[in-house]
Fold these 3 entries.
Entry 1:
Amino acid sequence: MTATLMRNWLPAIVILALGLALPFLVAGNYQLRLATLVWIYAVLGMGFNMLFGFAGQLSLGQQAFFAIGAYAFALAQIHLGLSLPLAALTGLAVCALVSILVGLPVLRMRTHYLAMATLMFAMVVHDVALRWTDVTGGTSGLRVPPPHLFGDRLERIEVYYLIMALATVVFLLQVFVKSTHLGRALEAVKTDESAAMSLGVNVTYYKLGVFVLAASVAGVAGMAYAMVSRGVDPSYSGIGMVINLLTLAVIGGLGTRIGPFFGAALVILLPQFLAGLQEYQTLLYGVALLLFMIFLPGGLAGLIERPAMKAPEQDTPSERPGRLGSEAR
Amino acid sequence: MPLLSVREATKRFGGLAAVDRVSFDVTGGEVLGVIGPNGAGKSTLFNLISGLTPLTSGRIVFAGRDLARLPAHKRPQIGMARTFQIVRQFGHLPVIDNVMLGGHTRTTPGFFRSLVRIPTVLANERRLRDAAMEWLATVGLEARAHDLAGYLPHGQQRLIEIARAMMAEPDILLLDEPAAGLNGAETAHLMRLLRGLNDKGRSLLIVEHDMKFIMQLCDRIVVLDHGARIAEGAPDDIRRDPAVIEAYLGKDATSHAQH
Amino acid sequence: MVTEARLDILGILVLSGLTNGSVYALVGLSLALTYGASRVINFAQGEFVMLGALATVLFVTTVALPMLVSIPLVLVICAMVGLMLERFAYRPLVARNAPPLTVMIGTLACASIMVGAALLVWGPNQYFVPNAFSLDGITVAGITSTPQQLAIIASFAILMLLIWLLLYRTTFGLAIRAVGIDPEVSKLMGIRAERVVSFAFVFSAVIGGLAGILVGPLLGGHVSMGVVLTIKGFMAVILGGMGSPFAAAAGGLAIGLLEATVAFYGNSLYAEPIIFGLILLTLIVRPAGLLGEWEAMRR
């Protein structure tokens, strides 16, 4: 039992320790900023992970909530003069509200249709961010004031720890969801909706629940990103963001607990080590995404954690056409 | 008052009636079998009762309550649980988690409330885990509790499914071809298990192909053919019913048997 | 006078709506065709339009080949890229039993690869795409149009007819439809499903390239133009339904007309949100699209 416990928590503890020590190991503000971005991307990845990895609902619109959170956060500070915590709560509330409004109709769809509709939604958000210049500032976006907490301006290192703490909270939330009835019900929804229903899982409500949760988590990531970048612009909701997100989620390992951390670290840090790579980034992310899906579908975390995505061989209804009489439908 | 009352239940797909004005009752503590040739509408009937398919017309009343407006996911709460013809297992989850899933409605707060009521949820988890272990012991699979469900042989997956359904502590258990694909020993084990459940007062409603199994287990049998009820009675009467023989073996066999 | 003016407006709206709608319809139709054969939504579909437009720039402007030579070259390139997508993304994933959604993410990865590669070749610049037909206005019955615009609509109509003939009047078309209904059963019937899948990917790529050649002069060529068109294609298939290429094409035309109308009477800023709202509304009423099968609601 202790062995299992160690196996489950050891990677997370190592990551946490590394994260705590990191500001003392890196030289300069640029590296610290990169490290901060890794945590932010990990948060974004965890939201997607809960939605697709745990519940099997493929949304390609997470970047819309990333942007909505960031814009709401910026606007609340600029126009309403709200403090950082209040602005963050506003951003969270806006994300949750929009995700309920969008989720209710969109979640009636499944698989491909859901993926298309959510990407459509994200493109609408992107379009609005670009063209509703009076509010969003158009292409140049909005500036976010420097972060203050309880009257004091936050140092870079404080921002780092704040965001790392956020990532830790989201990680614990993710573990909680996965290891309780919530995770089981989501797994049931992912595998077989009608069986889930027969076991008493309110499938519609659970799908909406995890959609709203993932949207809120994406919003948190967006707000953190805006805080670190001191601004928000339409690229937050761009197609590039969803490619980054998918790449980090797949490379890290879908359905695993620590996958998003690995993925985020790789997606952020790798281009830094290979000089002059910026130009090739779109191409390389695409190639990496494709290669991982073909050759290592469990991702990096899948190598150490039991991957939740890959089922052991079993007879599923679709694979046994002979058993499916007209009655079974 | 019967526990479950099916009245003129009808389901049409397009013009075709898969279930055509079927009526029967299940009284508390009874074991009722539903048999019929392939395509007789047995699985559709099960989906109507468990709420996965809406009725075209007719009524289904359970414990005095009309189920017309009760969604499938609320039926386990009021004492109705089911298994499927083709085992529906969540293969990525350990056996114990599969069984715990059966207790979903009985104990847990909703999605968002769960996120803020962590102690309640954790207490629930412990309670569910204990209950699931008990049911696993009952079906004889406690040793496999921590294996991934997908790795288990078919017969054991069937038992997990029953243990899972029992987690809802149902008054009636709907079993869709529970003996399908089981060998002799497994079938005998299943028979003992179901008898044991029935002895503790659970009603069972069983759809089955295996005649011997159903004749031995059931108090009463309803026979469907082409969506309609063609006979109802004790196993011995059903065995001799000409309409039933005809449905199963064709007209020739009937005339043959009469000669 | 008043009625005549309104007829003018109507004519312009219908014409510009049909022009864009034809392009959306071509993308939607290709999506539905590929989906029918492979049960995968090709997220790279719009990138073939981008490739078609920019390859035209390459051959006609950069290499200075005549248009008539360039067009076949562009289409061959699109076909080859389509085949590569099928060979190096779709097939390896399917061969490893990847779930359909994973295969779909694979096509999104391909979209990213195509955009990334195009960025290296063409950079992030906006290009003028040479036109095969004249862009000079011609006025018929008070409505001004261009031969290019009319060519788009005409090509679309001809393509629809050809695809209909292919699907419903040839044995190969029968095979395509059979694979779309049930790949397993059609395999038993001796249809080589892989060939149908290859064909669908290549054919869709060519249609995309053709759309790029046609609409490029109107939209301008840019590496990021593809994703927008992919999304329009999604709108088309969701609105029309994925059941048949023709339903998807009808959806595309409807989106084009709607866009033109909303942009004319309102602010073009609202066009996208309004259309998205309408699609959501459609989905609430008819979850499988206006003309759709009910695949959407099934597992």
Note: Chain A touches chain B through 43 residues (CB under 8 Å).
Entry 2:
Amino acid sequence: MVRYVIRRLISIIPTILGVTIVVFMFLRLIPGDPAVAMLGEHATEENVARIREQFGLNRPVFLDREALKQGDLKGFFNTQYLLYLGRLLRGDLGNSIHRRIPVAETLAQRFPATMELAFFSMFIAIIIGVPVGIISAARRNSVLDSTTMVGSLVGVSMPIFWLGIMLIMLFAVTLQWLPAGGRLDSGIELKTITNFHLIDSLITLNFAAFVNALQHIILPTIALATIPMAVIARMTRSSMLDVMQEDYVRTAHAKGVAERSVLYKHALKNAFLPIITIIGLQFGLLLAGAVLTETIFSWPGIGKWVYDSILSRDYPIVQGGTLLIAFIFVLINLLVDISYGYLDPRIHYD
Amino acid sequence: MKGKSLFILLAAITILSMVLAACGGGAATTEAPPVEQPTEEAAPPVEEPAPTEEPAPTEAPPPTEAPQASVFIFGRGGDSVSLDPAIVTDGESFRVTGQILESLYTFAPGTTNPIPNLAEECMPNESATEWTCTLRQGVKFHDGTDFNADAVIFNFERWRFTDNPYHFPEQVFEYYEAMFGGFDDASIITSVEKLDEYTVKFTLSAPLAPFLANLAMDIFAISSPAAIEKYGADYGTPAAGAVGTGPFVFKEWVEGDHISVTANEEWWGGRAKVDEIIWRVIADESARYLALKAGDIDGLEQATVEDLADAENNPDLYILRKDQPTTAYLAFNYKIQEFQDPKVREAIAHAINKQGIMENFFGENADLATTLIPSSMWGYNDTIEDWTYDPELSKQLLTEAGFPDGLSEVTIAEDIVDADNNVLFKAGDKIPLRLYYLPISRFYFPTPKEVGEAMAADLANAGINVEMTTEGDWATYLAARREGRLAGLYQLGWGGDNGDPDNFTGYFFGGGAEPIQREGWYQNPTLAELLNQALVTPGQENRDPMYKEAEQILHDDIARIWLFHTRVPLIFSAKVQGYQPQMVDADNYQDVTVTP
């Protein structure tokens, strides 16, 4: 098991390297560059050329064949990508081209915001989605089953954008129960340690900040959790129904095992493999969906930040942000794979 | 079992927090007290509170309760790039720096007239190549250091000299170069000398007519030299903020979320009425408007047409319109053979129903444009008669130009290449006539695609069939425009920087006699010469007719189709009074009051 985990962890390295190459290449394939995006309507030839030079954007992207032809081996490797990789290995994600501040610094502030929202949403999606799926499966074809499944169909099909606006209109504007956006009210002081507001407020025993942070996270969580919740509920239901056709479940029923016990002890554990898989995949989609949620609820996470940076061609931010998202995604999938072993004793890791 | 208790716990927390919120905690829940209904166009002037010697006992607050700070929260679409105004070009940065820092001159409220600010006056010599500025005395930066001649010189030298230790190589002092001709020896300002503690002398290599207007720009605001020395290249970043002499002091910047400033108790112009300003980033226009309605914010800029209509009917809100000098236009790419014929250009000018488009898409948020320079600026030529909307005349002109069956296809006159010299359109190629619309909403084109579609419909009525297209995203579009490869008609616009007409016509059509790549290869040596002359001619009264003449040349040449001068709508809660929109530079906040 330990060897498997180590092997998987090592395999993250080429994956991440692949991500850097793909992101680097695609970013530079999009026409327009940071200089033009930065200067806007004002761009003059000289300014654009100067900015390109300052940020090394005039260097070849991967390898400098011209330099090699001239026998300049150092120049051959003196390219945008390799310089970036060199800095990356030293733990330097570079500086934002537009804001000129270290990408790592902003990531440290924004990434927890996205993760806080993503984890909270996933948590809600699971604790509601899974029970709903189980109940639907247990009472197949009942009114409850039909209602929840129609409900989940609506959930899957609901555009986050529309849902977000509706939630704000109802809970923030009409009922005035919850704030329309942001992470914390301006008057609330909170000492940041992890940058996860809910955690920081608990650590510092700042109850006012905790309640305020909770109020702020509710609406974006509902918006973000709806789709994965619906997918998980539907997946749980169909997976449970499959398992409940199995002989051992029938045997359990025949032996007179209590319905509850059959459901939770016998069926659920086996039904969980595909559910866990879908949860892992949904987490990736959740991070992608965070762009919209963060935009509507003015949530200062990395989704909107990376998206805006693509538009302004702020390469270091896009590279740093996607790298981190890819890393988290790979890590979550590793956790999913490991959990298979616990759920199904037939799976062995060598 | 464990899962069940966890679920109950979470549900309990959620419900509890909702209940707590509903019970009156949090800023979002404050209900607007009944307030006087403001007029739609302008907030009623705020009266200074009458000084009462002995407040009535009933009105006195309980002695134990500290007076609540008044906070003005403004919602905006994007974050500032930097709070060092010298190295940025975006309005969201100036919106904040304009409150923290001050320039030697400023613009009189609601106009483009430069008036003294940190300088008490600047007087030119006879040839207007030397300007002697007397500085305001007794002014201190927020860090306690003195504002004086040394501070002015420090800033100007930092901007100008590329080898200045504080002219950091990774920073782009773009506006200095644009407004003062270049860096180092290319700079029109050849020296800034200290005559005494509070007097500086600027020496120019040639007269620069918009000199005072340039000094008044937010970009050339004076930062504390001590702060720049202390923070180095970090000056202006969220960690350091900015240190100036303005009415508000930098408090904090949570990147992507908000920036806050507090009233400068020592401001030479008198303490601001509001205690704190917070600019909150709410990127989505609808969400921003809902945040205003929910009471999360007190004011905002830029809203959708639907939300503006809603706000007009909402007694708790009112609208101000920022009359900034802007012009939206439709440009020709002159590498298209047909566009080289003035009759074709005129046919297109007569085919577009500008009035109809304005009524449908802009309402009160725009005026029709007949020239590049907006009517609110000096240099505007009010004698020019716009091209009438007349599709029949368009058809006739097209027939005269040799296109009796209308125009759907055009010919490339010269190769159009990209930055790497790859030929995108070859000379002689026939391509569909294209109309490029902006890929994003800009303040001068809030709904570019919809306006483009309306134009296309108008053009089709006159037998001109265009293919609607755009070019990638904003950066891509700008790059294509800069390289002169938007092969057809294309939308773009301009927002003025300093209220000087050179910043409009001069920027676009000044320069040399060659075709201007960035301007769709437009070429007019006579116009360029006139504009270059206007830039160095002293005296507004002498320059004014020159810009009027330039506009007449552009009109007679049908160089472009000028469409609209747009206004930026601002919506406020009725609790807010005293907000003063500026034509150029940041709006003024020092008279803002927020009724609790």
Note: The domain at 103-343 of chain A is CATH 1.10.3720.10 (MetI-like fold).
Entry 3:
Amino acid sequence: MTYIAKPKFHHPALKNNALGFTRRDYEGRISTLCAGCGHDSISAALIEACFELSIEPHRVAKLSGIGCSSKTPDYFLGQSHGFNSVHGRMPSVLTGANLANRDLIYLGVSGDGDSASIGLGQFAHCVRRGVNMVYICENNGVYGLTKGQFSATADKGSRSKTAVNSDSPIDLVSLALILGATFVARSFSGDKTQLVPLLKAAIAHQGSAVIDVVSPCVQFNNSPASTKSYDFVREHNEAVNRIDFIAPREEIRVDYAPGTVETVTQHDGSTIRLSKIAADYNPRDRVAAMTYLQSRHAAGEVVTGLLYLEDDSEDLHAHLNTVKTPLNRLDEKELCPGSKALDAINAGYR
Amino acid sequence: MREAITSTNDFVVKFANVNGSGSASANELFARCVLRMGVPVASRNIFPSNIQGLPTWYEVRVSGEGWLGRRGGVDLMVAMNPQTWDRDIAEIDTGGYLFYDSTKPLTTQKTREDITLLGVPLTQLSNTLEGTIPRERQLLKNVIYLGALSALLGFEPKVVEELIAAQFKGKDKLIGLNMKAVELGHSYATKNLAGKCRLSVKRSDKVGNRIFIGGNDAAGLGAVYGGATVCAWYPITPSTSLAEAFTAHCKKLRVDPASKENKFAIVQAEDEIAAIGIAIGAGWNGARSFTATSGPGISLMQEFFGLAYFAEIPAVVFDIQRGGPSTGMPTRTQQSDLLLAAYASHGDTKHVLLFPEDPRESFEFAAESFDLAERLQTPIFVMMDLDIGMNDWLCEPLTWDDSRAYDRGKIMTRDMLDAGKDFGRYLDVDGDAIPYRTLPGVHPTRGAYFTRGTSRDRYARYSEEGAVYVDNMQRLVRKFETAKAMVPKPVRRDAKAKARYGVIYYGSTAPAMNEALAALEARGLHLDTLRVRAFPFSDDVVDFINAHDQVFLVEQNRDAQLQKLIVNECAIDPARFISILHYDGTPITARFITGAIAERMEVTRKEAAE
């Protein structure tokens, strides 16, 4: 934890993106999390993803619940509005914000306590409604701010300093698949090469994109016995694919990764190139994805990569048939039927 | 046999039915017939928390004088439910009437010697309707009794015809069938019961251009007029019909004619917590948003109310109050959420409450609440109840001033930011303790801030400094003072003669209070009245209390909640008040208020005389 102000100067040769912004323009306040926290790596990946996509920082809204993960929106995209709401209720606040203005990009940042325990219901319902958002669960299996209690994603048999977890874990990725999320992925905070393209693809996706990011807690859950530790994930990671995300305006790059390559075009014209590592993995088959996850889990592996993608997804606004203009921009001329209409309405009540 | 009650345009008819039997629409038609004859009615549903098979009642008070509260007592009972026969018969006033299905003779059922029996063989008559199936005949039985009652009470036939034609507009076959049923009942009663009923409805001109509308319907329409675009709700009696009314009005009034797209977004949430979360998220992002709920929902939403109060986010909450605590009496009325709403959430909080007196004011306050929410950047509670929300009331037509612009409150725009205005989200720039806010996405480099429920400084930076926290909490108190001048003022009416006693009341007590005042005045008991319409309380409330020796406070709850709120917030001696409390779940009546006030005042008058 540090109180040193971030220096404003930067290297003159720092790269600019299409909008002329540097990476520094996507940073936030200095993190107050513990040194080595996986969450800071996720913030860095988000900065990278937004920079590479040349997103205007102020067109993003960052929403979170309560917990270590939920503090992080203060540490990236300092020019974006952020909302640190109440524990487990970020999904509803994000849903409302999204309904008010469909033109912004919504990042929902949550943790495993926030999403899998107190907020499991809200997580489920915002995913099944198809809210257009990137839902990131920074998953470390513990409650960090209250000093190391198990969360609902902790594996059965996980050990803390004082206890052994005997409850079955909740897997948010499996849940997201069942609930109808149209983009489902898992990654690891220590694997930026995988995480950044996943985040970019999720941002471009129209609909509910859920990314579970295993993010070790260096204080309370990085012991050899933990399944959410750096060592465990590195040793047991089973990546189903490596992806390369290409925004519509970018040139298509040559992919050098080994194995077969598959190009998926998303709703907005952007493409995702999947470099297959696991043989026969088809990211457009929801049922196969669930089976695959279960079988790898039984073998003690953590599957990462893009697990499911629906090409022609629809979001909540499509379901509600809302106007293209953001609702928060409509004025009385658009919204108020006026006195003449009211006279006719009165007549109907006589 | 006592003398049969004789009355024109002043009596109470109560329909005892089984819910799910299709009686509701026939009963409502009955009330509308009376209105179409220019005679005011007050109607009330008394229904169970159930869908089919349990007792339900519909009470219609016909009042040529225009009294709209519940009167109490029954002159004519339409007894259609064998389950409740005994208690229904017992409820009829001496000299009253019992209308029943006489297909089978009354042998085992109890009747009374002091009432007049009006038997019509409804089942037998319905069986003569050719080409109908049993389910239809069951429904048409209700229409047959409407026809019989229209003969007994002397409705003009064209009034019934017009209303049936309007109800089944475009379905000629149904109009024909229903009219046939009306005629069956009408001709039977004319032939067999002529002269037996001395209650009658005579054409009058006391309705004027008033409308007959329910409060939830009116509030839903008010939300449309007030510019609400986001509604999130969870089904709960008695508020469900508000969200449904908003939906229905939006479908008629808010669909873009060219694109056929909706200028609204309505989400049925997974629970009340999500409903208020959605409303707050939308309010934060600059849309006018609301939720509608009842007491149990308000309990669940507490944490979010604290967030919206502390982080200063606009939202509107309609609380259609019902009988509490816990599940309580879900289909009965009360005013028992005042304290819960006024201080909702942990920590030091205070919320703005509005108390509409009827559906018309529900419409007005609904529209106004969105201005208040954005101006004050805080949740606004519109405190209705089941009696206003779910019953049709006769009230003045709804009006709208086309020159009225929405007050979007203090929003710092891109231009203001470009002009170099200093933006501190919690900075009191104008001295009214209301800060400026920016909406997400406003400016590439200025105006962004981090909204949080944790303590922060005037520039929205996290802070646990005591002085910084206190500074902000003090500003919130000052903001509540600012609200005082913005909320609807209380309505004071003074007695003809100088009065030592005052009465304070609010919400759905109004029609019963109006009638009680007239009755008390007729007995020479003079009172000044003050109808409170909002919290925070205007100084007028304190002045009114100070101007009287004692003040009756009439409420529909057990614990005198408004009185406690006044004592608490205005530092008034509790001994100044005399509580008049009605909380059995039925709407308060003029008889109850008159009785309670007269008893107390006459004791004092006697004491003074001795």
Note: The longest strand of chain A covers residues 302-309.
